[in-house]
Amino acid sequence: MPESLTFDDAATIKAGAEAAWKALCTEGELPARQTVLLHAAAGGVGQFAVQLAKSKGATVIATASTSNLDFVKSLGTDHSETTVMRSG
């Protein structure tokens, strides 16, 4: 475990990975080489979902905020778009 990561933060990583696994592999039964749209791909679940989908050969289309778009692209998405959230 990296020294910069606290035990509390490290403990939360499993939750995101497990949720992505369940959504794509267990419940979702993602077939190989499909196209997947992942919203909030920079989030705790989204970043794992991108990597899991890519490992199954999926084409990944992802959304993220402007500030997270480069990070999402670095995960290997095939197409990444910015989403704008508005309140009210």
UniProtKB/TrEMBL annotation:
Coiled coil: none annotated. Residues 44-79 form the Alcohol dehydrogenase-like C-terminal domain. This is Alcohol dehydrogenase-like C-terminal domain-containing protein. It comes from Paenibacillus rhizosphaerae.
